[in-house]
Write a structure and sequence with these properties.
The protein has a single domain (2-160), classed as 3-Layer(aba) Sandwich (Aminopeptidase), CATH 3.40.630. The chain is 32% helix and 27% strand. It is built from six helices and seven strands. The model is unreliable at 168-176 (pLDDT under 50).
Amino acid sequence: MSQIRPCRDDERGAILAIVNAAAEAYRGVIAADRWRDPYMPAAALDAEIARGVAFWGYELDGRLAGAMGIQPVRDVDLIRHAYVAPTHQGHGIGSALLEHLLRRSTRRTLVGTWAAAGWAIGFYERHGFALVRPERAAALLEEYWTIPQRQIETSVVLAWPPLDAADPGGGDRPPP
C-alpha cells in the first residue's frame, strides 16, 4: 500500500537516508567543490525545515521510499530536495510526489538543480517545467534561494509554468 503524506518530525533520519543515498548519483558529476559527504548533514536538514521547507513523503508498505520538499518564498513555491531511494527509482514515485505538490500549489513553481544533472533536468521537463535562461536563472537563485555563489554558478532553474520575456519571474499561476 502506498500514500503521499506530510513527513513527520520523527522521520528526519529516514529523509536523510533517502537524500544521501540518492544523492550518490551526483558524486563525480557535479563540481568536486560542491560535493559534501554526507551530501546533506542532519544540521542542514534542520536548517531547511526551519526556513520553511515542508517535506512530503511517499510511503510504501509503511516506510518512506521518497521525499520532496516545497517551500513558499514570497510570490513563488520552490521544489526542494526531491529524492527517491535508489531501490525505488524508476517506479513513478518522484513523479507522484511532484504532481501532488504541484496540485497543492497555486503559484508559480521553481526548482533549482545542478546544471550537470541532465537526468534531473529531464525529469522536470517531462513534467512541464522549462529551463530559465542562464542570466535570469542566476537572478532567481539569488532572489529565492539561500545558497553560495559557487552553487549559483553551477545550477540551473526550471519554472512551471514556463517563464517568458514579459513575465518578471513570479506571480500566480493557473492550477495544473
